[in-house]
Design goal:
- Strand 13 and strand 14 form a beta hairpin.
- This protein has a six-stranded parallel β-sheet, sandwiched between helices. Strands 7-10-11 form a three-stranded antiparallel β-sheet, covered by helices on one side. The protein has a three-stranded antiparallel β-sheet with strand order 12-13-14.
- The chain folds into two domains: 140 residues, Rossmann fold (3-Layer(aba) Sandwich), CATH 3.40.50; 162 residues, Alpha-Beta Complex (L-2-Hydroxyisocaproate Dehydrogenase, Chain A, domain 2).
- The chain starts with a strand and ends with a helix.
- By secondary structure, the protein is α/β, with parallel strands linked by helices.
- It contains ten helices and 14 strands.
Length: 309
């Protein structure tokens, strides 16, 4: 990719830009934010770290959305973050018009781009972006499962003491309290975590995963998570830029997969140069399937509020 635009130069946007620049995942990064001077200062600050980290990526800051012109990928982090005690759905009404304006300009200025949604509630807003753009579903997808799965893997490492390098986890469903951690598909060097952890501990890890973002927000009080989300976004961008065809859980528009249509949910997908190239369907048992359906109902409830579902 030649150019990536990040709309929203807050903490998630800034950390994302720095991760992408350090990894040289594109030649140019445009940071856009409505706050005067904020994206310009953020871009300059990151640029001045280039001699230390050794990257040639060029960063610029802008206050107008048309600066996304010519982008290969548009990462949307703009919007109102939730505060302690709020759910992701609580910021829905405020963030829909923000995302709509961004997508409309993307269609005008960067008609060949892909959109990676980060703003919450990400499942609903990914659907909004897809419907508003009219683009094929492979070009519009969102962050959730990569972040949720890395949180679950981190908690498994904390409980077992094993190297994080050997741990993989899988989380499906909506990005919220109804997400569906899948212990059966979570392993330590290919060995199911049930071989090392009892059922009570696994259940505790699953619940902590569901509350992973809220836990950080409650501790920080003035800021939600940004380092882990930014690292998760960079993982997705790396898969696209290098055409790795990685199997990663992402928010994807479903077209019959998992028995769902016309909805965005976190599912494993093949992520490569074509974006979301294919949804991978896992065989779910009765309990897992039931949890997935309940999560879908929660997402549909938010869609129904917007009269989009």
């Amino acid at each position: 990719m030649e150019k990536i635009t990040i709309v929203g130069a807050g903490r998630v946007g800034e950390s994302t830009a720095h991760n992408l620049a350090k990894a040289e995942l594109c030649r140019r990064i445009a940071l856009i934010d409505i706050k005067e001077g904020m994206p310009q200062g953020t871009a300059l600050d990151i640029q001045e770290s280039a001699p230390i980290f050794g990257f040639d990526t060029k960063l610029t800051g802008h206050n107008e959305l048309d600066a996304m012109a010519g982008s290969d990928l548009i990462i949307i982090t703009a919007g109102v973050p939730r505060k302690p005690g709020m759910s992701r759905s609580d910021v829905l009404d405020v963030n829909v018009p923000v995302v709509t304006e961004i997508v409309d300009e993307a269609v005008r200025s960067a008609p060949e781009a892909m959109i990676l949604m980060v703003t919450n509630p990400v499942d609903v807003l990914t659907y909004v972006a897809w419907k508003r753009s009219g683009w094929k579903r492979n070009r519009v997808f969102g962050l959730s499962g990569v972040l949720d799965s890395t949180r679950m893997a981190s908690f498994i490492a904390m409980e077992t003491g094993f190297s994080i390098k050997d741990i993989t986890a899988m989380v499906l469903g909506g990005h919220g309290d109804t997400m569906v951690p899948l212990p059966r598909y979570s392993c330590i060097n290919g060995i199911p975590i049930s071989c090392f952890l009892d059922a009570q501990t696994v259940a505790r890890i699953a619940e902590r995963t569901r509350q992973g973002g809220a836990e950080i927000l409650a501790l920080r009080k003035t800021s939600s998570a940004y380092d882990a989300p930014a690292a998760a976004v960079a993982t997705m961008v790396d898969a696209i830029q290098h055409g790795r065809k990685r199997i990663l859980p992402c928010v994807a528009i479903l077209d019959g997969e998992y028995g769902q249509n016309g909805i965005c949910m976190g599912v494993p997908v093949i992520l490569g140069s074509g974006g979301m190239e294919q949804v991978v369907e896992l065989e779910l048992n009765e309990d897992e399937s039931g949890e997935f359906v309940r999560s879908a109902e929660h997402v549909r409830a938010d869609l129904a509020r917007l009269r989009l579902g």
